[in-house]
Amino acid sequence: MFNFQYYAPTKVVFGKETESQVGQLVKAQGCKKVLIHYGGGSVKRSGLLDRVKASLESEGVAYVELGGVVPNPRLELVYEGIDLCKKEGVDFILAVGGGSVIDSGKAIGYGVATEGDVWELYEHKRNATACLPIGVILTIAAAGSETSNSSVITKEDTLDKRFYDDDISRPKFAIMNPELTMTLPDYQTGCGVADILMHTQERYFTNGGNMEMTDQIAEGLMRNVIANAKILVKDPKNYDARAEVMWAGSLSHNGLTGCGNDGGDFMTHMLEHEMGGMYDVAHGAGLAAVWGSWARYVYKNCLHRFVRFATNVMGVEAVGTEEEIALKGIEALEAFYREIGMPTNFRELGVEAKDEELREMARRCANYVGGEKGSARLLKEADMYEIYKMAL
Ligand code: NZQ
Ligand code: ZN
Predict the structure, then answer these.
(1) For residue 346, which of 81, 114, 253, 292 sits 20 to 30 Å off, Cα-Cα?
(2) Which CATH number fits domain 11-180: 3.40.50.1970, 3.10.450.50, 3.90.950.10, 1.10.3720.10?
(3) Which residues neighbour ligand 2 (ion) by CB within 5 Å?
């Protein structure tokens, strides 16, 4: 077991109609002017945006708004948001949406409060000195950005999708009403489920120590997400299943399921970020498409964890060799992905990748992680290319 810090400062306000509290929650932050940040239109269609504005107005909170965040959020809009906030004297950001909106909001928050070009943070050239405070109304259970320290932005001209992690961007509050996720297309619900599972798996498939408490939380979380995702395939309006998945989404990426490990593997995420940059695919679908290939490439180097995952999470019978059991666990997760409409390779993802694109993604990925990365198995550029090729 490794030493660890666990920092989860976000106030979670969970349950039905909780978005009506947003005016009070923002007012309690003592800010002068709020930026309401949102995506491509789902919050307008659902009427949520109007309810948010009404709640702010009833508390006398001034606001400006900036919509138009797209999945794999773009740097261009971040710059626009920074200019708007500076011009309007905005001192609080309210992100109404999913991971893309929250991440864009975090980037704007850094850009307003820290001198210099915000993209340099995402290039890991320097660290932020400050970030505007952020509040969230979550509309999709997926990225976990509502309680995480992470933000992922895409620079459109170079197709670089890059992350920046810093505790100063963890949201002050997150309003989580599972009912708000009921307007999601089934595909987006599936993408969210894949991402939630992966955030715990990245911390679970490691060779660096473990903590039984953490492992049991991780396994319980994964079993629970799988069980409730299956319910949502048949009954998308099931409130309790929505609530289980939503809460799991936050716990899966706020650090809880990594306490005592070696920092995690995170190579599936690094591989997917290149795919998101290159092909603009939904993050969760990209993860599902590449995970099986990653798992088959690394499992022999992390056999004890793959065996444990197979038996404790996927319910595989402990019969046969350890390698056979581990492979059955991988197959079982892929079968689950197919059941919830998620792809298990590039073809199912709808991507016809060219060999030179795979090489380019492997080159970029290796470059970004400083040459090599991974705990289940340390991967270099040639390994990354092999995994992409296996995923075709
Ligand atoms: O833009 P709108 O119209 O709102 O539509 C969105 C979008 O098209 C739609 N949607 C969201 N809530 C909805 C809804 N549609 C109907 N009803 C609702 N209630 O869903 C689509 C996807 O939204 P997005 O915010 O992109 O989803 P997600 O939460 O999966 O975020 C993905 C982004 O987060 C990053 C990913 O890389 C990707 O860029 N990640 C962020 C992390 C973090 N900050 O901690 C960690 C993750 O590993 C991930 O990398
Ligand atoms: Zn993710």
Answers:
(1) 253
(2) 3.40.50.1970
(3) 195
